[in-house]
C-alpha cells in the first residue's frame, strides 16, 4: 500500500479491480468459483493493507526483501513480524467472514485455501515492491505520470500484479487442501 494517507482513484482501483471483475463474472455466469476468487482477492488486498499499516506501527525497522538487510519500516518490499501477523490475520478474517456471508457451508480446508491464497498474494506484493517498483519508478513513463495528481503509480501496478496472484494461489491450494 502507499505510504500516503490519502488514496487516489488509481490506488482504490488497483485494490478492487480484480475483485470487481470476479463479481461481474459471478453475476454473468452464476459459477460459484468466482465467489471463491472474489473472497480470495479481497483477502489479498486486506492482507497487503493490514501488513503495510501495522508493520510501521509496531516496528521502526523492517527486513528488506530487496537486499536482505534491515531498513526503515514502511519501505516498499520490507516485511516485519507484526505486519506479517496482521497480514495473516486479515486474510483469515476475510476468508472466514466471506465464507459465512456468501456460502451456505464452507469447509475448514476451503477457508484455509482462501486465507492462504490472500496471505501469499500479499507476500508477492511485498516481493514485487522490493524488485519491480524501483525500476518502474525510474522509467520515463512513470516519471511523466508522477507530475499528474491522479496518476497510476508503480505501487498501483505492484498492487494490481500482487493481488492477481491470489486466484492462482487459490486454485493451487484448493487442489492441495480440499
Summarize the structure.
The protein has 178 residues and is mainly α.
Layout of secondary structure:
Layout: H1 9-29, H2 33-58, E1 61-64, E2 69-72, E3 78-79, H3 81-102, H4 108-131, H5 133-138, H6 140-145, H7 154-177
Antiparallel strand pairs: 1-2, 1-3
Helix pairs in contact: 1-2, 1-7, 2-3, 2-4, 2-7, 3-4, 4-7
What do you see in this structure?
- By secondary structure, the protein is mainly α.
- It is about 70% helix and about 5% strand.
- It contains seven helices and three strands, in the order ααβββααααα.
- It has helices at about 10-30, 35-60, 80-100, 110-130, 135-140, 140-145, 155-175, and strands at about 60-65, 70, 80.
- Strands 2-1-3 form a three-stranded antiparallel beta sheet.
- Strand 1 and strand 2 (about 70) form a beta hairpin.
- The longest helix has 26 residues, at about 35-60.
- It is globular and about 45 Å long.
- The model has no long low-confidence stretch (mean pLDDT about 90).
Helix- and strand-based class? mainly alpha
Query: Topology as H/E string?
Result: HHEEEHHHHH
| Number of distinct beta strands | 3
Work out the strand percent: 5-15%
> How can the largest sheet be summarized?
3 strands, antiparallel
- Number of helical regions: 7
Write out key terms for the chains shown.
178 residues; 3 strands; 3-stranded antiparallel β-sheet; single chain
Amino acid at each position: 500500500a502507499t505510504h500516503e494517507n490519502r488514496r487516489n482513484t488509481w490506488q482504490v482501483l488497483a485494490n478492487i479491480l480484480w475483485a470487481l471483475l470476479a463479481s461481474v463474472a459471478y453475476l454473468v455466469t452464476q459459477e460459484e468459483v468466482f465467489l471463491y476468487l472474489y473472497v480470495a482477492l479481497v483477502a489479498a488486498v486486506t492482507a497487503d493493507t493490514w501488513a503495510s499499516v501495522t508493520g510501521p506501527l509496531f516496528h521502526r525497522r523492517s527486513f528488506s526483501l530487496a537486499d536482505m538487510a534491515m531498513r526503515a519500516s514502511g519501505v516498499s518490499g520490507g516485511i516485519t513480524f507484526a505486519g506479517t501477523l496482521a497480514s495473516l490475520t486479515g486474510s483469515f478474517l476475510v476468508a472466514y467472514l466471506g465464507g459465512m456471508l456468501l456460502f451456505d457451508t464452507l469447509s475448514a480446508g476451503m477457508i484455509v485455501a482462501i486465507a492462504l491464497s490472500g496471505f501469499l498474494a500479499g507476500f508477492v506484493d511485498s516481493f514485487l515492491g522490493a524488485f519491480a517498483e524501483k525500476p518502474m519508478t525510474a522509467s520515463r513513463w512513470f516519471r511523466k505520470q508522477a507530475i499528474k495528481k491522479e496518476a497510476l503509480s508503480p505501487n498501483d501496478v505492484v498492487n494490481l500484479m500482487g493481488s492477481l496472484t491470489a486466484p492462482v494461489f487459490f486454485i493451487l491450494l484448493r487442489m492441495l487442501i480440499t
